[in-house]
Automatic annotation (TrEMBL):
This is Mannose-6-phosphate isomerase. SUPFAM superfamilies: RmlC-like cupins. GO terms for molecular function: isomerase activity. CDD domains: cupin_PMI_type_I_N_bac.
Amino acid sequence: MERIPKIVFLSPIYKEKIWGGRKLESKMGRSIPEGLIGESWEVSVYGSDVSKIQNPEFSNLPLTELIKKAPNEVLGKPFSNSGLPLLVKVIDAKEKLSVQVHPNDDYALKYDPQSNGKKECWYVLSADPGAELVVGFDIHTNRNEYEALVKENLGESVLKKWKVKPGDVFLLNPGTIHAIGGGVLLLEVQQSSDSTYRVYDYGRIGDDGKPRELHLEKAFSVLNFSKSIGDEKLKKELITYHPFPRYLFTSNDKFRLESWEFNQAQNFTFTPLSDPACFGIFFTVSGSIYFPELNRTVGTGETFFVTASGFSETIHATVTPGTKLAFMSSGTDTVKYQ
């Protein structure tokens, strides 16, 4: 078998959406399909949406096949039997998305067994002036009260709206009502799942000429109707200054999100961050990173996947001043971080 690469580069999977735009092209310099592209699935093994590998020695091989070849080397020993637990996307909302909610694992197992629960995190990459996210309720309410508002087309009236700017990060636990507003480009890390219950969609018409389907019974069964106390917006916590500043946004049961920030040009090596070593997914928020072993530069807006064996071996890298990397990996239910 060919040697498992330390770094895996993957081809994005683009999704056209009625609310999508063209910022993946204008803001991130990508060549994307025509139309309103709302999502780029950066790293995915969910359903039929499986990322294809770009590395020459494994060109166009589905990521799932590489994992099957060497699960310990690609993902790490804790994932040998379970597969990649995360899905990473970039979302471009030219118009606002529907108001929606996700279930937890227990509810999904019972009512949507084809998928998992869905905890997710948003990292704002760019935001037009006045752009907003909806996260949580602005008042205490209950099922009967909110159901009545939805039926009166007033479903937005009691939602907590946040003006956002680049660098803002929000954690959405299952049961949290939410919506991405128009003019927001964001990075999303989530459980590998597509369990989404649409609560309210402003009466929009779908591709079939009919109002888009709502999932009210399931949504009202999982919603947390308590007023938000504002803790969905995360603060970054400094972990270490050496060899560069690392900040933690969240390390929860499903995933971890950090920001690696480089104020100056710097050489560094990747080292294991967990015990046992496991995979890591990186998104270049700003700047660029060069891998001399591969003679490849990863620029702003690009994603790369470091295998478990890559962390255990030596990966040399050089960054430009002002480089910022979002690091995403497994949750604390599987590995212990150093």
